[in-house]
Amino acid sequence: MSLRLKKESLSTLSVGTHQYEYYRLSEVARQLGDITRLPKSLKVLLENLVRYLDDDTVVEDDIKALVDWQKNAHASREIAYRPARVLMQDFTGVPAVVDLAAMREAVKSLGGNVEKVNPLSPVDLVIDHSVMVDKYASDDAFEKNVEIEMQRNYERYLFLRWGQQSFERFRVVPPGTGICHQVNLEYLGKAIWSEQQNGRHIAYPDTLVGTDSHTTMINGLGVLGWGVGGIEAEAAMLGQPISMLIPDVVGFKLTGKLREGITATDLVLTVTQMLRQHGVVGKFVEFYGDGLASLPLADRATIANMSPEYGATCGFFPIDEITLDYLRLTGREEQEIALVEAYSKEQGLWRHAGDEPIFTSTLSFRYGHCGSKSCWP
What architecture does CATH give domain 85-194+205-242? Predict the structure, then answer.
């Protein structure tokens, strides 16, 4: 097959004074079939396949299978998915850097250029798992703990600092900054990613895999991501696709408003119980309904963070005004926020009131039915 679809879907998006190239899903729909009611989480996968269409790892039949998913709300086809970036914590990240260093040694022994050994996808390593609490109940406990941590793991941190200075597309977040999935949500996640590729400014959905099971928290920001093992993360870091079946998607409709006295914890526990009973292992969960308009992003992130507890691959919340408000609250640049809004609206990733995607199965919950401490996982 030819790469005609990829070529013809490439277009330009103007956002303020900036120009971005992107792969237009409306052109894919024109050629292969309507995708209006395709779940937004699957539209993210669809764009990924179009962008990496090469007639080798990704063929046009893969894209057609994802478009045709709407017919039966199921597909048995295996696809090659390439996340935009990789998130690691220190326990799994250190071995990955050791592997990269070993690869450079091997290249050097063969007379090659060691500078060519680098991650092909951006990698963020957040140091949080090795942090211990030695001091407490004092005003300077935090500073003392960080100081002790630096002394205790000096050689490890010196090695990671070398890695950050030596490898391209590799950043280290130092200890004392926060836990990895929280740092990812507040600082690293972009919702829509943009980068220079061969002299072109390309925009596409922010996606990732991480070596922490609660990487799923980022889905509250409209970023598709989930946890994987260290070997899979290293493969993604080196540009290798992740092989996966096109997933079933369970729709969870939220309506109404929370009653006074009912907390976000009550809602999260209720949602978790319902999804456990429904059975969502190995599936995507996508939230929709007018109830999202009053659900703060912190609560969305908490529900998404519970994905390992209810068994889903991820719990995805589409991008909307609340997403943009959170990006502003956490200090993202206005140009980045403008790109998130313009791109998601252009690509059908923006949540609109009244959206009714096709799902494999659905659940619904009215906030008014949520009781205090209504369930415990």
Answer: 2-Layer Sandwich (3.30)
